[in-house]
Amino acid sequence: MLNTALSIAFTLVTAAFALSFFRLFRGPSAVDRILALDTLYINAIAMLVLLGIHLASPLYFEAALLIALMGFVGTVALSKYLLRGDIIE
Length: 89
Known about the structure:
By secondary structure, the chain is mainly alpha-helical. The protein has 3 helices and no strands. Helix content is 87%, strand content 0%.
């Protein structure tokens, strides 16, 4: 049962990756591209958590936490850059 659920989850997260890359490359504005990058790092977190469950290794959960932290900081920095033109005041 768990293997079936993991297979379905891997498939759906892979589809989400593909759709996010599509929006990243085709996005009509910079805001759409930032949202696509935000979605990509969330999908990467989901993929690492699923891989950690599949392999029963806590190392992947720690990597997911690091990606979450860096992704949040990156999104905030890009948003500030788009709003003000610089990151540090």
